[in-house]
Amino acid sequence: MKWKKANFRSVKYQRTLIMKYNFCGNSGLQLPEISLGLWHNFGDVDDFGTATSMILYAFENGITHFDLANNYGPPPGSAETNFGKVLAKELKGHRDELIISSKAGHLMWDGPYGDGGSRKYIMASIDQSLKRTGLEYFDIFYSHRYDPQTPIEETMQALIDIVRQG
Q: Which of 162, 92, 153, 160 is nearest to 130 (CA)?
Protein backbone atom coordinates (compact mmCIF):
# COMPACT_ATOMS: atom_id res chain seq x y z
CA MET A 1 0.00 0.00 0.00
CA LYS A 2 1.37 3.39 -0.98
CA TRP A 3 0.67 6.07 1.62
CA LYS A 4 -0.26 9.50 0.37
CA LYS A 5 0.80 12.41 2.54
CA ALA A 6 -2.24 14.01 4.16
CA ASN A 7 -2.65 17.45 5.63
CA PHE A 8 -2.86 16.28 9.24
CA ARG A 9 -4.00 19.66 10.53
CA SER A 10 -7.15 19.61 8.39
CA VAL A 11 -8.04 16.07 9.44
CA LYS A 12 -7.34 16.46 13.19
CA TYR A 13 -11.01 16.77 14.04
CA GLN A 14 -11.86 13.86 11.74
CA ARG A 15 -9.27 11.66 13.49
CA THR A 16 -10.90 12.29 16.85
CA LEU A 17 -14.27 11.24 15.41
CA ILE A 18 -12.88 7.96 14.05
CA MET A 19 -11.40 6.72 17.33
CA LYS A 20 -12.88 6.43 20.80
CA TYR A 21 -10.62 7.53 23.67
CA ASN A 22 -10.79 6.51 27.32
CA PHE A 23 -9.13 7.91 30.41
CA CYS A 24 -6.23 5.84 31.72
CA GLY A 25 -7.15 5.10 35.34
CA ASN A 26 -7.30 8.26 37.43
CA SER A 27 -4.81 10.10 35.23
CA GLY A 28 -5.56 12.81 32.72
CA LEU A 29 -4.25 10.70 29.85
CA GLN A 30 -6.75 9.65 27.25
CA LEU A 31 -5.74 6.55 25.33
CA PRO A 32 -7.30 5.41 22.08
CA GLU A 33 -9.14 2.10 22.16
CA ILE A 34 -6.48 0.77 19.80
CA SER A 35 -2.76 1.44 20.21
CA LEU A 36 0.11 0.54 17.92
CA GLY A 37 2.86 -1.55 19.45
CA LEU A 38 6.17 -1.43 17.62
CA TRP A 39 7.67 -4.73 18.78
CA HIS A 40 8.27 -6.29 15.36
CA ASN A 41 8.02 -4.79 11.87
CA PHE A 42 9.75 -1.57 12.94
CA GLY A 43 13.39 -2.65 13.38
CA ASP A 44 16.37 -2.30 11.10
CA VAL A 45 15.67 -5.69 9.48
CA ASP A 46 12.27 -4.42 8.29
CA ASP A 47 11.39 -2.13 5.39
CA PHE A 48 11.47 1.44 6.72
CA GLY A 49 8.94 2.64 4.14
CA THR A 50 6.41 0.02 5.22
CA ALA A 51 6.98 0.85 8.89
CA THR A 52 6.50 4.55 8.15
CA SER A 53 3.28 3.83 6.25
CA MET A 54 1.89 1.77 9.13
CA ILE A 55 2.63 4.50 11.69
CA LEU A 56 1.14 7.24 9.52
CA TYR A 57 -1.94 5.17 8.63
CA ALA A 58 -2.50 4.50 12.33
CA PHE A 59 -2.18 8.20 13.20
CA GLU A 60 -4.44 9.24 10.34
CA ASN A 61 -7.10 6.92 11.78
CA GLY A 62 -6.96 8.22 15.33
CA ILE A 63 -4.36 5.93 16.87
CA THR A 64 -2.35 8.31 19.00
CA HIS A 65 -0.68 5.86 21.40
CA PHE A 66 2.54 4.28 20.18
CA ASP A 67 4.14 1.66 22.41
CA LEU A 68 7.88 1.04 22.31
CA ALA A 69 10.51 -0.72 24.42
CA ASN A 70 14.26 -0.42 24.66
CA ASN A 71 14.69 -3.94 23.27
CA TYR A 72 12.20 -3.73 20.37
CA GLY A 73 13.63 -4.24 16.92
CA PRO A 74 15.38 -6.34 15.86
CA PRO A 75 18.10 -5.46 16.64
CA PRO A 76 17.31 -4.14 20.12
CA GLY A 77 16.74 -0.40 20.16
CA SER A 78 16.12 -0.04 16.44
CA ALA A 79 12.33 0.33 16.75
CA GLU A 80 12.85 3.37 18.98
CA THR A 81 15.38 4.82 16.54
CA ASN A 82 13.10 4.27 13.54
CA PHE A 83 10.05 5.67 15.34
CA GLY A 84 12.12 8.73 16.22
CA LYS A 85 12.94 9.22 12.53
CA VAL A 86 9.27 9.00 11.55
CA LEU A 87 8.29 11.35 14.35
CA ALA A 88 10.90 13.94 13.34
CA LYS A 89 10.20 13.79 9.61
CA GLU A 90 6.51 12.96 9.22
CA LEU A 91 4.80 13.83 12.50
CA LYS A 92 6.73 16.96 13.40
CA GLY A 93 4.41 19.34 15.17
CA HIS A 94 2.09 16.59 16.39
CA ARG A 95 3.89 15.58 19.61
CA ASP A 96 1.13 17.22 21.65
CA GLU A 97 -1.40 14.80 20.12
CA LEU A 98 0.62 11.64 20.84
CA ILE A 99 0.97 9.35 23.83
CA ILE A 100 4.35 7.64 23.49
CA SER A 101 5.30 4.89 25.88
CA SER A 102 8.43 2.85 26.34
CA LYS A 103 9.75 0.37 28.83
CA ALA A 104 12.86 -1.36 30.10
CA GLY A 105 13.63 -4.71 31.67
CA HIS A 106 14.94 -7.13 29.06
CA LEU A 107 18.53 -7.71 27.97
CA MET A 108 20.13 -4.78 26.18
CA TRP A 109 23.87 -5.16 26.81
CA ASP A 110 26.32 -7.52 28.48
CA GLY A 111 27.31 -7.08 32.10
CA PRO A 112 25.59 -6.87 35.46
CA TYR A 113 23.45 -3.84 34.54
CA GLY A 114 22.38 -4.91 31.04
CA ASP A 115 18.89 -6.02 32.03
CA GLY A 116 16.53 -6.35 34.95
CA GLY A 117 14.97 -3.87 37.29
CA SER A 118 17.86 -2.22 39.11
CA ARG A 119 17.83 1.55 39.45
CA LYS A 120 21.07 1.75 37.43
CA TYR A 121 19.59 -0.25 34.54
CA ILE A 122 16.25 1.61 34.55
CA MET A 123 17.90 5.05 34.58
CA ALA A 124 20.45 4.14 31.88
CA SER A 125 17.69 2.59 29.77
CA ILE A 126 15.41 5.62 29.80
CA ASP A 127 18.32 7.92 28.94
CA GLN A 128 19.25 5.71 25.98
CA SER A 129 15.62 5.38 24.87
CA LEU A 130 15.13 9.14 24.91
CA LYS A 131 18.27 9.59 22.79
CA ARG A 132 17.16 6.94 20.29
CA THR A 133 13.70 8.47 19.85
CA GLY A 134 14.87 12.08 19.97
CA LEU A 135 12.28 12.82 22.66
CA GLU A 136 12.58 14.90 25.80
CA TYR A 137 10.11 12.73 27.71
CA PHE A 138 7.85 9.68 27.49
CA ASP A 139 4.22 9.99 28.45
CA ILE A 140 4.37 6.51 30.01
CA PHE A 141 7.46 4.55 31.03
CA TYR A 142 7.05 0.98 32.29
CA SER A 143 9.12 -1.67 33.93
CA HIS A 144 8.79 -4.38 31.28
CA ARG A 145 9.07 -7.30 33.67
CA TYR A 146 9.51 -8.26 37.27
CA ASP A 147 13.15 -8.86 38.22
CA PRO A 148 13.45 -11.38 41.07
CA GLN A 149 17.05 -10.27 41.67
CA THR A 150 16.07 -6.66 42.44
CA PRO A 151 13.81 -5.54 45.28
CA ILE A 152 10.54 -4.24 43.84
CA GLU A 153 10.98 -1.11 45.97
CA GLU A 154 14.18 -0.25 44.09
CA THR A 155 12.48 -0.61 40.71
CA MET A 156 9.46 1.40 41.84
CA GLN A 157 11.62 4.17 43.33
CA ALA A 158 13.49 4.49 40.03
CA LEU A 159 10.17 4.89 38.20
CA ILE A 160 8.96 7.43 40.78
CA ASP A 161 12.18 9.39 40.33
CA ILE A 162 11.71 9.38 36.54
CA VAL A 163 8.23 10.86 36.97
CA ARG A 164 9.54 13.51 39.36
CA GLN A 165 12.33 14.45 36.93
CA GLY A 166 9.75 15.05 34.23
A: 162
